[in-house]
Amino acid sequence: MAQTVKIKVTVNGKQYEREVEPRLLLSDFIRHDLGLTGTHVGCEHGLCGACTVLMDGEAVRSCTIFAVQADGHEIQTVESLGTPDNLHPIQQAFIEKHALQCGFCTPGFLMTLVDYLGDNPNPTEEEIREAIDGNFCRCTGYFNIIEAVKLAAQKMASH
Amino acid sequence: MKPAPFEYYAPTSVEEALATLQTLGYDGKVLAGGQSLIPAMNFRMARPAALVDLNKVNELFYIKPTSDGGLAIGTMTRDSVVEKDPLVAERFPIVPYVVKHIAHPQIRNRGTFGGAIAHADPAAQIPALSVALNARFLVRKQGGERWVNAEDFFMGPFMTVLEPEEMLAEVVLPPMAKGSGASYQQVSRQKGGYAQAAVISVVVVDENKRCKDARVVLFSVGETPILSQTAPKILVGNVPTAEAIAEVAEKISKEEVDPGTDIHGTAEYRRHLVKVLVRRGLTEAFERAK
Amino acid sequence: MAGKYVHQSILRLEDPELITGNVQFLDDIELPGMLHAAFKRSDYAHARIKSIDVSEARKLPGVIGVYTAEDFGDYIKPGPLQVPPPTAIKGATYVARTTMPIAKDKVRFAGEPVAIVIAESRYIAEDACDLIYVDYEPLEAVVDLEKALQPGSPLVHEDLPSNEAGHVRQERGSWEQAVKEADLVIKRKFFINRNAGAAMENRGIIVQWDKHAKQMTIWCGTQSVIALRNQTAARLGLFESQVRVITPNTGGGFGPKINTSLPDDVLITYLAMKLDRPIKWFEDRRENFLATTSERDQVHYCELAVKRDGTIVGLKDFFYHNTGAYNPYMMTVPLNTQTHTVTNYRVPNFLTEFYVVFTNQMIVTPVRGAGRQYGVFVMERMLDAAARELGMSPVEIRRKNLLPANAYPYYTSIIGQDFVEGVLDSGDYPTSFQKTLELIEYDKFVNEVQPKLRAQGKKVGIGVACFSEGTGVGPYEGARVTVGGNGKVVVTTGYTSQGQAHYTTFAQIVADQLGVDVKDVKVITGDTGYFGWGAGTFASRGITVAGTATHLAAQKVRQKALKLASKILEAPEEELELADGVVRVADIPSKFISLGDLATLANPMRGTMEPGTEPGLEAVAYYGPPYGATGAGAVGLIVEVDPETMQVSLEKMAFVHDCGTPVNPMVVDGQIHGGIQMGIGDAFYEELIYDENGQLVTASFMDYLFPQATDMPKKLVLGHMETPSPLNPLGIKGVGEAGAIPIPSVFTQAVENALQETGVEFDRDTLSPSRIFTYVQQAKGA
């Protein structure tokens, strides 16, 4: 029988206790064990950024962290941001600037940006590009995402 | 792309970690930030029998000033913490600048300073940085410890002097000498990507602008970080001229590096990059030296 | 053609749910009792399978079954052709060696499946793959495109006399004559590399068989639900009605997801029935690189016959096209290359000929652009070469040869991927070219900016290129528009969506016809349970073909509504209008009936239905164009090259595009943006590289360079033109692939221009700095 480890993780403010195999990736844990499927998986080797979540407030890639390592930590996923009727300003900005097409990479961008704009409320365009450089998008060419980040920064400043 | 099974240990103290490593011997592998190891495990290119996860060893996360003006960095200190730490920026301005070039923000939030050193990827920044800054490493095992100079630590690609039961515990950066200047030059295909060639230059000049020391460390162009022997030979004792710098660059690119041809560049191109980057790096480092 | 909604940049209706994670992508689906599949894949590009030992794998706890070709018996055979052979082209020859669902006796590319594991979890399934031992007899791999056709080359398919998979030769006018008339014949050879589609969501499939209802449900992010349903039903001996294919939200397509009868859908449908358990396979990134289809390498030998003044008298292009180990998609990609070589310029004499070649590499099928960019690349490169040799500017030679604005319809005499003669339906190429020159400030750059920067030692360069894109080809698509009793409208189509905003743009079309709020139009795509006819998402044909079918269906519903309302409101149809969700008498706004009430009345529960009428406020329409609508445009690019490291910085890009009526201009811009990114990848970063043994050495994002935000041009200016297509009522042309098409051409020209003083000339795409360095070294040595 494979070893399992008991973990306690807080995800989007809710505490979960689960028995997991040590090799279970945090991305699979969030998606398949907890059913929070807003986080997506695009490469499983830490390059594409689709699986980005916040761990204790910092953007990390959930495909290169084991679920056991989340024990005692706080995770935030896209489900913690807004709802269709009450969108987070970054989500609102993405919609207004047509910064998503297929939407698969978008949750990763959002979580990266929640962390980034929290620390850097007034970034230059060059800084924005660097901030999202670890998130791949195949649909938008990033142009509208960059515009959306500028708009989101404005929206968050006036909040 | 799911990792193979492994046994998992999550010690909460250095003592416990060392005891676990001692017991596991060759089966044990330290898990630090995991940003290189876990992808390799997902590809099943790495299949450690057991992982000793240091992420719960709180005593390994720190940046402390040393009384001589240097720094002691706990092995588990995240790259992003080093990158943003005001004391690091004050004492070693080159460090955050180099660290910023490591992959992307999400990776730096997880990757660790010591982990990168112990991993010894020949294309990684921090091993080269530690050589350039003349760092010393505290290596511990159950019931013992030793100090290793960065220069003596790296044995080959992904190979170091660490024994299976040992652990890199602390990195000590001696203070930058008065009159020192540093520069980082890298060429990679994309921002955050592996360098095709890179050089960290740390020089020291006296009040007459004469070069007292020149540590020029190349990486991604050989099996380990390469500390140039040529640079101090030509430069020390003289006021550096453009010609002297060009000569150093030429000699290093011809004699001291051994880049291979890979899918992103020919050996000839990368050797050429070394020449260009050494020249640019030394010029910048001397300009900054004060 | 503008309406209340059509031609308006309304925000996407699908976004609020999509951006909050309230949608379902394939891997989000969990079914009770679901099993997971993983493939054991070949380590060799070319080898005979001597034996496969699965005994240890079968014993692993959690493993339900391990299967090799042997276990499937006669079920394993090459799949059907996904595209028929081009019999319309005189003299075209071909052989078909279609995809093997699982290797039998021999593997033909690294990554080809040799066994499939079904287990309780993907983790266990992968563990079991590690316990499968295959004894191979390695064979020499066929890797090099040109060597593959030489006598004595190893054979990918040993029952064939050579590795030739097909041959097409088409000529208009006479090349021989062109040579006679020309002052100069310029010869060049070009190499074009392979790219991956690399959608952010990998492929995948979930199959559930209900043995009581005798009903199969397949969830799959396919670009063609109809092909998947029909081929599955035929293979399993089921009626089409017993198989329902549903596309969940899909994370990008870009071509490779069009394919059906691949190992996953062939084997997993069978095993889900056999095991009576739902099965999921979700491809991982490594598998995507190794074994999902990718696109093209080609080698071109090209000759351009010109007059001294730059006038083109003829072009000859002879090329080899790599189709990989199998050719299920026949000749779509090389035919696109062929048709797009001369679509922007007057080329009175054109001879084009290609050989399709089998190699021990993954299968080649379309990826965004689908070979078009290489026709364009060849032509644009030849023009650059001619300009260089004739001492003309790249602008001048293009101006001289561009098709004039009054040339349409322009018959090309060349048969394309849709098996009809290419016809350029509409356009105005000189104006789009001129507009591009203005947006990139060409004259100012060349006369003022560049000399100044060059004097400072900076290597800055500019390029301009033209392109066209044959879009919206047949055969057909269909749509059903239904008004519900709630007054809202549902549109269903067999077309599939991977992020192109069809949920908004189709709704815009319908809302204009029926006078309803666009938010009250729900669009359902890619679900055979709702709509069972169509061809699929390819060739930038969504809005052009399926959108037009939607428009026609909405018009029919409109007619029905007017007719019925006319009776009820006792007013002639001409006096009625549809607006605000009601049909009303235009002059007497108080006299109206809501669409919902009309829909209810349109389904009478008693009485007699009038002969010649159909129930419901519902209609189906199909649309099939005689030939595709051709979009076109031009692009300008300014770059700076570090003269020592050869790093290239994209300073400014100007892109002018004409897709006729843009149903939603915001969405059109987005499509171009994404295409540009893939084009930049193609020009500078992305490359699938095989070594001499046929091993893919770029099977991860560490090695396959995916363009990032910092790789995009610092500044992008878009320009728009609208010459409506006469082929469809809304005047639409496709735009999905446009952005990708001209980028390698313009990039190459701009870098060459930046390094002008070295005399360097490039004969390939994907110019890494190292390659640029090598070219420059050679130019200096020459």
Structure overview:
Helix content of chain A is 33%, strand content 16%. By secondary structure, chain A is of the alpha+beta class. Chain A has a five-stranded mixed β-sheet with strand order 2-1-5-3-4, with helices on both faces. In chain A, a hairpin with a 2-residue loop joins strand 3 and strand 4. The longest helix of chain A has 15 residues. The N and C termini of chain A lie far apart (53 Å). By secondary structure, chain B is α+β, with helices and mostly antiparallel strands. Chain B folds into three domains: 47 residues, Uridine Diphospho-n-acetylenolpyruvylglucosamine Reductase, domain 2; 116 residues, Uridine Diphospho-n-acetylenolpyruvylglucosamine Reductase, domain 3; 109 residues, CO dehydrogenase flavoprotein, C-terminal domain (Enolase-like, domain 1). Helices cover 35% and strands 25% of the residues of chain B. Chain B is built from twelve helices and 14 strands. In chain B, the strands form four sheets. In chain B, strands 4-5-10-6-7 form a five-stranded antiparallel β-sheet. A four-stranded antiparallel β-sheet of chain B has the order 11-12-13-14. Chain B starts with 6 loop residues before the first strand and ends with a helix. By secondary structure, chain C is α+β, with helices and mostly antiparallel strands. Chain C starts with 14 loop residues before the first helix and ends with a helix. Chain C folds into three domains: 158 residues, Aldehyde Oxidoreductase, domain 4 (2-Layer Sandwich), CATH 3.30.365.10; 195 residues, Aldehyde oxidase/xanthine dehydrogenase, a/b hammerhead (Aldehyde Oxidoreductase, domain 3); 332 residues, Aldehyde oxidase/xanthine dehydrogenase, molybdopterin binding domain (Aldehyde Oxidoreductase, domain 4), CATH 3.30.365. In chain C, helix 9 links the parallel strand 15 and strand 16. In chain C, helix 10 crosses helix 11 and helix 14 packs parallel to helix 15. Chain C has a seven-stranded mixed β-sheet with strand order 3-6-1-13-10-11-12, with helices on both faces. Chain C is built from 19 helices and 29 strands. Classes of the chains: A alpha+beta (159), B alpha+beta (290), C alpha+beta (782). Chains in contact: A-B, A-C, B-C. Chains A and C meet through helix 2, helix 3, helix 4 and helix 5 of A and helix 1 and helix 17 of C.
